[in-house]
């Protein structure tokens, strides 16, 4: 158990978390929780680390946030910090179909909103995301070891499921560090080294939402945002590629939704995943808000509209830690 988990467990189980949040820990600002997938990670041959919660746990989390915070939408952000409120925004990245099948029913039943950042090319073309293909190759590999190569500096064991999950994590980190011009070379080399080949197209059926699903959620009060066309790490891509990824996805989503969008989330979202040039391109495209993915929350005195921090939600985060993060973000976010 991590120190944060231990502290959160102590605070929540003794009732001190609630007491502190009403006295010493009272906060005002914007806390953004970020999800990717909802469902059972063991049921997928793809990246299991990208699952955020089961449907039941997501329902539990939304119920808690409604009781203890003010759930807001993108249109509320201008006034949120001035109102001095505990504002919480729920967001999802990428556009997985389980967002529609499992998260949307919970949000609708609770009369709660969320923002869905869409990778437009995934919805248009049904292609497999690079992180999912890397995970598929390593899950499918008949080998007990991934040999060192031009890209992988040392061999990685694949003998156990735990080995394979660790290897997935390491190869994902390598991929994210590469210039965009070398990413396809990396995937082709990994396909050879794992013995799995590239993932067949039929494996990707029904992985992403359809535009009809997106429009249904939009009509029901969910917000939409941009997340590029193909989910590159923008800081690793040439400026013209960044401009295309940003502008084309925005135009595509707006054409399907029938109205403008003003919010964007950076793929990968770490401090080195975007640059000042990326920010300028977002402004030129007409984006008002942009979200990163490295923890923290915003206050009236600490707000950057093109780098709004988000807290990742993952299955290993206990409900105690989730509640403590919402109660005391200055300590846990």
Q: How would you portray this structure in words?
A:
- The protein is of the alpha/beta class and 333 residues long.
- The chain has 2 domains: 3-126 and 207-332, TIM Barrel; 130-202.
- It contains 14 helices and 12 strands.
- Strand 10, helix 12 (276-285) and strand 11 (289-291) form a beta-alpha-beta unit.
- Helix 3 packs across helix 5 and helix 7 (130-140) runs parallel beside helix 9.
Set down the secondary structure blueprint:
Elements: H1 3-14, H2 16-22, E1 29-35, E2 37-38, E3 51-53, H3 55-68, E4 70-71, H4 77-83, E5 86-94, H5 97-109, E6 115-118, H6 120-125, H7 130-140, E7 145-146, E8 156-157, H8 161-177, H9 183-194, H10 211-219, E9 223-226, H11 239-257, E10 263-265, H12 276-285, E11 289-291, E12 311-312, H13 319-327, H14 329-332
Helix pairs in contact: 1-13, 3-5, 3-13, 7-8, 7-9, 11-12
CATH-derived topology of the largest domain: TIM Barrel
What percentage of the residues does DSSP assign to strands (E)? 5-15%
**How many strand units?**
12
Query: Treating each run of at least 4 consecutive H or I residues as one helix, how many helices?
Result: 14
Question: Tell me, what is the CATH class of the largest domain?
Answer: Alpha Beta
Mean pLDDT over the residues: 94
Q: Which class do the helix and strand fractions yield?
A: alpha/beta
Q: Name the poorly predicted regions.
A: none
Rounded radius of gyration (Å)? 20 Å
